[in-house]
Design a protein that fits this description.
Elements (H helix, E strand, L loop, with lengths): L12 H6 L1 H15 L9 H21 L8 H28 L1 H6 L6 H9 L1 H18 L14 H25 L2 H4 L1 H10 L15 H4 L3 H14 L6 H25 L3 H4 L1
Length: 272
């Protein structure tokens, strides 16, 4: 029996389990169709962060002279771009997921949460590929014993979970808005560009005055990026003071995003 949701609900896990086959099918489809009829295939997973890294190295590393905590700037920026590119692409695709599948929304019933969450998880493949390239670059240039991977690698799964929660939470919230207000979808490229400069992608968090760092750390990607640099480059100790506030924010984002999504879910088929 299909009944409309009542009140502010978060996630109906029982329903998601019942539709797990659809969930995995859409995740696999998102991976497969992304590179369909593409000459470079999964090579696009590394082209975007590598090309951005080259531009940042030229502009911020050479021309502006941004400090890179004692490591080569191209590695410093690429280490940040690996998690940031995942967050950026997962968020952008999650926001557009409902509009892209509007025919499904109006014809059949299924848990609508499946659409944005499946594309967020599908982007993990790109993260794995770009991370493997990053590790190869670090291994090639790792001649100075003063920097390189350390025990902090054990923290990386936690940082990945924070990224998933952040991109899924914000993606759920904005995708629900984008169904009714298409301006959200049109403005995503501008929004993610602003968000990138609100995170330490091209600069170190040490550039931010200490009295503002707690508020700065409420951005979940701040702790994630600095955590990646700490674990892989040993630039600084593991920044738990940045990771914990961001982790709390990511959980709140996921809960609020899921509640808002579930609240608006009943009108998706009418306005899509």
């Amino acid at each position: 029996m299909i009944e409309p949701p009542s009140g502010w609900q978060v996630i109906n896990f029982k329903e998601l389990v019942a539709y797990r086959d659809l969930f995995w099918f859409l995740t696999h489809k998102a991976i497969r169709t992304r590179y369909a009829q593409s000459a470079l295939g999964i090579g696009w997973a590394v082209i975007q962060p590598v090309a951005t890294m080259l531009v940042f190295t030229l502009v911020f590393g050479k021309m502006v002279g941004v400090r890179s905590d004692g490591v080569p700037y191209f590695i410093f920026s690429f280490t940040a771009l690996v998690p940031w590119t995942y967050f950026q692409n997962a968020l952008t695709e999650a926001v557009a997921s409902l509009i892209a599948q509007q025919n499904m929304l109006s014809k059949i019933y299924f848990p609508r949460l499946v659409l944005p969450i499946s594309v967020v998880l599908a982007r993990l493949l790109d993260l794995v590929i770009s991370f493997a390239l990053l590790m190869a670059i670090i291994a090639w240039y790792w001649s100075d014993p003063g920097w390189g991977p350390n025990w902090g690698i054990c923290v990386l799964p936690l940082l990945v979970v924070i990224m998933i929660f952040s991109s899924a939470g914000l993606g759920l919230f904005l995708s629900a808005m984008a169904v009714q207000y298409r301006d959200i979808n049109y403005g995503m490229s501008f929004l993610v560009r602003l968000l990138m400069y609100a995170a330490p992608v091209v600069y170190s968090v040490s550039e931010v005055p200490e009295k503002y760092q707690f508020y700065y750390a409420l951005n979940p990607m701040v702790g994630v990026i600095e955590g990646f640099r700490s674990a892989l480059l040993s630039t600084n100790p593991m920044p738990w003071n940045l990771i914990f506030p961001g982790a709390v924010t990511s959980v709140i984002m996921l809960l609020v995003g899921a509640m808002y999504f579930r609240r608006k879910e009943r009108v998706f088929a009418d306005v899509a």
